[in-house]
Amino acid sequence: MVKSSQRRIRDTRYAIGVDVGATKIASALVTQDGRILATRQTETRVNQGAESVIQRIADEINALAAQTNETLSGVGIGVPGLVNPNDGVVINAVNMNWKHIALREKILPRLKRNVPVRVENDLRGAARGEHLFGAARGVNDFVLLSIGSGLGSAAMVNGSVIHGANYFASELGHFVIDPKGRVCTCGLHGCAETVLSGRGLVETTREFLEFRSASSLNANDLTPSGILDAAHANDSAAIAAFEKMGEWMGIVMATASAWLNPARIIIGGGLGLAAFDLLYAPACESYARRVIKGNQEGVELVRSQVDSSAVGAAALVL
Ligand SMILES: [Zn+2]
Asked: Taking Cα atoms as reference points, which of 287, 313, 250, 253 lies closest to residue 75?
């Protein structure tokens, strides 16, 4: 018997993923195949200032790291905003009121274990998670659209998540889809996010209600989940709003297709997943009308399969 074979060879690597949101910090200890071993969650408390939030992130990492003696391949931190992954600086995170925060540099000395830390835009982490253990396994060209309160997106081309010159590549949420459209939170008019988001759905439904009196919905008290329930109960205004949203989604998909020729478009986000069945047919129909037959046909529209944003962040270091 060869001596070295008597040693049990470990091929398991663990990683810690941290998803930093404006309201909560979700973290997880994850195996290399995406299995969650432990999770934690705490409030972000953005109003207490960046230093306090950074300490809270470090505390969460230390608490998870203390739960294992295994080698950690690293810590991935996903942040909702513009991030330079090379130096770990958060250039701009509007929802957190962060500008030029050297997150990686500030986190490293606070960690009790000596592990590499990678900071990245949260959606790019999610895209990597889908590629490693989600809806994009074996697919090197895909676009991820996350439909929630806003519209987030990321894209992988030839197996690499794209960043662009200023780390703003694949921000389809702020692609102007309707020059005469609604004012966006970014200050532009008619961004895709103004129609393809929870806020957009509420606005579109309100517009439909002006023409349809036979709806169970109250124009002054609209929420995305209320509209979703109404659509499932066959409310015609709610269904029309989702059909319109699906039409916009098809335009965003066709735009992504013209630029990047993805094999798959993955839909994530709370609203995107909850409304997937309502959006699917109108989005596919709208897409088919806007792409060149033979060239861009065959794109698959699928649901996201990584339900934890912390797992996506962990994928950054796996
Ligand atoms: Zn915008």
From this structure: 313
Q: Which CATH superfamily is domain 11-129+309-315 in?
A: ATPase, nucleotide binding domain (3.30.420.40)
Q: Which CATH superfamily is domain 138-303 in?
A: ATPase, nucleotide binding domain (3.30.420.40)
Instruction: Give pLDDT tens digits for 123-176.
Output: 999 999 999 999 999 999 999 999 999 999 999 999 999 999 999 999 999 999
Question: What is the pTM assigned to this prediction?
Answer: 0.93
- Chain segment 230-272, per-residue pLDDT in tens: 999 999 999 999 999 999 999 999 999 999 999 999 999 999 9
CA of 68 to the centre of ligand 1 (A): 42
- For residue 40, what are the CA distances in angstroms to 29, 61, 177, 213? 9, 9, 38, 46
| Cα(114) to centroid(ligand 1), Å | 39
Residues bordering ligand 1, an ion, CB closer than 5 Å: 174, 184, 186, 188, 191
For the chain, residues classed under CATH 3.30.420.40 are 11-129+309-315, 138-303
Residue-wise pLDDT tens digits, 187-196: 999 999 999 9
CA 110 – ligand 1 centroid, Å:
36
